[in-house]
Specification:
Elements (H helix, E strand, L loop, with lengths): L47 E2 L3 E3 L5 E3 L7 E4 L5 E22 L2 E7 L22 E4 L2 E10 L6 E12 L4 E12 L14 E4 L2 H16 L1 E2 L27 E2 L20 H9 L21 H18 L2 H19 L27 H20 L3 H18 L6 E2 L4 E2 L11 H10 L4 H10 L4 E2 L2 E2 L7 E2 L1 H13 L3 H16 L13 E2 L26 H11 L1 E3 L6 E4 L8 E8 L2 E10 L2 E19 L7 E4 L2 E2 L4 E3 L4 E16 L1
Parallel strand pairs: 21-24
Antiparallel strand pairs: 1-10, 2-3, 2-5, 4-10, 5-8, 5-9, 5-10, 6-7, 6-9, 11-22, 12-13, 14-15, 16-17, 18-19, 20-21, 22-23, 23-24, 24-28, 25-26, 25-28, 27-28
Helix pairs in contact: 1-10, 1-11, 3-4, 3-5, 5-6, 5-7, 7-9, 9-10, 9-11
Length: about 675
């Protein structure tokens, strides 16, 4: 809405509600990379956000931007309107009004258009409804007032705010202002100051990247606004202390599961989220929690392993060696804990079988557990090397080699008839998406198996995503993220792009969704019913879920092709993948500096430009479309000393930091 239509009364923004953490510590005040791609940035310009239009109960627009200064509600005419913010928002809602008569003003919230009404979509996970919030606005004559939702009832994620009245007599209300004060990403003074960007010849992919980035923002919250546990009998409460030493933390979802679940860190990691898992590690056994306080569940070997891998990923981008030194003894304790479950076969025997929600058996010698262990070992090798612990690195590397043999054996997890891994060594009832995708992504599969696995996985796709066999009927972007990255890793570029468009693109364009976020999961028929939705109607799943944001990294790391290989990007690799795209560019920022690259297809080859901090070094790998090395020119001069891999078709050369142009001619 325009300010002339919905302008709140002047006053101090409710920063105190968020423990003085709003806009205090983030170092960037402007985006690292600015350009025409900024049009896709969904993050608000201000923490006070107003609706863009008002709908009636039938979802028809009754008032658009700048059309009319006020909305009238009456028990004699209309008693409810839907304020559409045009995208996901979250925080404390304020409503200015003038009222005469007796009755209540009500507010309800929903992420999806399906559930607009006087009852909010479900977030508490209990048996009762979330219901609505009410304020008694009775007045004998027209009286102006303002209602702000209580701090403990702040709504972490919604697109639609439903404003309505209830009365047993006569009540006339004029709404003169509606706005939400944004609570997420509390330590950023400029919500649009991204450290990275992505742009390409495919506008859908561009929108997906920015929706993924915005999803991560909305799930980064003030630590004192967590989900209360146990669940309230009805209604909701978001004032739990997540016991994080910091001003923000990455949680599971914006609306629901506002807690640190280790599984989300398999896709997106942040310092405070990783640290709190170390803070609540079992000091005796070395086991990491599956979810931290106030929920505090243990008993998940896979989530334990994801925390270990997330430690590596955080250090890789942050170069926070102080964090690594502080926690490495506990990391080693975590490795000892999980390796104690490797049995005489050389395979991990999963006993902590809690997982991401899969229905299929996950105990025993599961494929996903063993592929995650392989990933933890290989990333653990890097951590040990970065700290100079070479003997430990060699020890873990030997364990990884020993693990790879049995998990790839037809006597255990590999099914040569299917061309895919079984669920466990003794369960061939399904060939799971998670374990097979992780086998590609972490490199745990034999090279000779990789193409077969990549060919198998799309047999589970329908027109809107990958139906996961281990959670029948459901499409789970968390697991699809591993599949996308797995296809990219073995250069099945087109397959990866197709899945991103098919699943993430479908949701982003869904008129009933947020048109701005990445959803937790959905059913194969396109309904929002997902997994164990207690409402059975689809209002419980989160439409802003951090575990669904894999495209944010994948499009930079694989399509643009630029990714760090040492902490902070001291060394890096540039290996673009084109698929059906004509051009792409993107970048990211680390404490070392800004990293960016762009490429465009030209007749007979392509042109690649990169800009990395001075003093860094890298490897540039370019692919020839004809299976033989092409001519590589660096800044106009032919590059000597290149190597060519006939199996992959990649030509490799060493590179230095700075701004350079590489041209490949076939």
């Amino acid at each position: 809405m325009s300010s002339s239509c919905f302008k709140l009364d002047p006053g101090t923004p409710p920063t105190a509600l968020f423990k003085n953490s709003i806009g205090t510590t983030h170092g960037l005040t402007r985006a690292s990379f600015r350009g025409p791609w900024d049009k896709n940035n969904l993050s608000p310009w201000s923490r006070q956000v107003e609706p863009v239009r008002v709908l009636n109960e039938q979802h028809k627009v009754i008032q658009g931007y700048g059309h009319g200064p006020r909305i009238t509600l009456s028990n004699r005419t209309k008693s409810m309107v839907v304020c559409d913010f045009g995208k996901e928002v979250g925080g404390v809602l304020s409503v200015n009004y003038s009222a005469s008569g007796s009755g209540k003003l009500g507010v309800a919230f929903t992420e999806a258009l399906n559930f607009t009404g006087p009852v909010s979509d479900n977030s508490n996970g209990g048996t009762g409804s979330d219901g609505a919030l009410y304020a008694d606005i009775s007045a004998p004559k027209a009286t102006s007032g303002s209602y702000t939702t209580p701090y403990e009832k702040m709504r972490g994620g919604f697109r639609y705010a439903i404003v309505f009245i209830e009365t047993n007599g006569t009540l006339d209300v004029t709404i003169t202002g509606v706005a939400v004060y944004i609570s997420f990403q509390p330590n950023w003074s400029n919500l649009r100051a991204y450290g990275g960007y992505f742009d390409s010849s495919d506008e859908l992919l561009n929108r997906i990247w920015y929706a993924s980035a915005y999803t991560i923002q909305t799930t980064t919250i003030p630590p004192h606004t967590g989900r209360v546990w146990p669940n309230p009998a009805d209604g909701w409460l978001n004032n739990a202390d997540l016991q994080v030493n910091g001003t923000s933390v990455l949680v599971d979802g914006a609306k629901r599961d506002r807690a640190v679940w280790a599984g989300d860190l398999g896709i997106a990691s942040a310092r405070n989220a990783v640290q709190v898992l170390y803070d609540f590690q079992n000091a005796t056994t070395g086991e990491f929690p599956m979810v931290t306080p106030p929920i505090s569940f243990y008993g998940s070997d896979t989530y334990h392993l994801i925390t270990m891998i997330a430690t590596h990923d955080f250090i890789l981008y942050s170069n926070d060696m102080a964090f690594l030194n502080q926690n490495f003894e506990d990391y080693k304790k975590a490795m000892t804990f999980i390796l104690s479950k490797v049995d005489e076969t050389g395979l991990l025997n999963v006993t902590g079988a809690s997982n991401w929600g899969r229905k299929a058996l996950d105990a025993g010698r599961s494929t996903d557990g063993n592929m995650l262990l392989y990933g933890a070992l290989t990333t653990g090798v890097s951590l040990a090397q970065w700290l100079g612990e070479q003997e430990l690195a060699r020890e873990w590397e030997a364990v990884a080699v020993k693990l790879k043999a049995p998990v790839n054996s037809p006597s255990y997890n590999w099914d040569p008839k299917k061309g895919a891994f079984k669920n466990t060594d003794i369960d061939a009832s399904i060939h799971p998406e998670d374990g097979n995708s992780m086998a590609l992504y972490f490199g745990g599969a034999n090279t000779s198996y990789e193409e077969q696995i990549s060919n198998y996985l799309p047999t589970n796709w329908n027109s809107i995503g990958a139906i996961t066999p281990e959670q029948p009927g459901n499409i789970v972007p968390f697991i699809e993220g591993y599949e996308v990255n797995g296809h990219f890793r073995i250069h099945q570029t087109q397959r990866a792009l197709d899945l991103i468009r098919r699943s993430w693109g479908w949701y982003l364009n869904n008129p009933y969704g947020t048109r701005s976020m990445m959803i937790e999961g959905y059913y194969e028929d396109g309904s929002f019913r997902y997994a164990n939705d207690p409402t059975k109607e689809g209002s419980y799943p989160s439409h802003a879920h951090g575990w669904s944001t894999a495209p944010a990294e994948a499009l930079i790391s694989y399509v643009v092709g630029l990714r760090p290989t040492a902490p902070g990007g001291k060394t890096w690799v540039l290996e673009p993948q084109m698929g059906d795209l004509e051009n792409a560019q993107g970048g990211f920022t680390t404490p070392t500096g800004k990293f960016s690259a762009s490429w465009e297809v030209e007749r007979g080859g392509y042109r690649l430009t990169y800009d990395t901090p001075s003093g860094t070094s890298g490897i540039v790998r370019v692919r020839s479309s004809r299976g033989k090395p092409g001519a590589v020119l660096l800044d106009g001069r032919r590059v000597d000393g290149v190597t060519f891999d006939r199996r992959t078709g990649l030509t490799e050369s060493k590179a230095s930091g700075g701004r350079h142009t590489v041209v490949l001619r076939y």
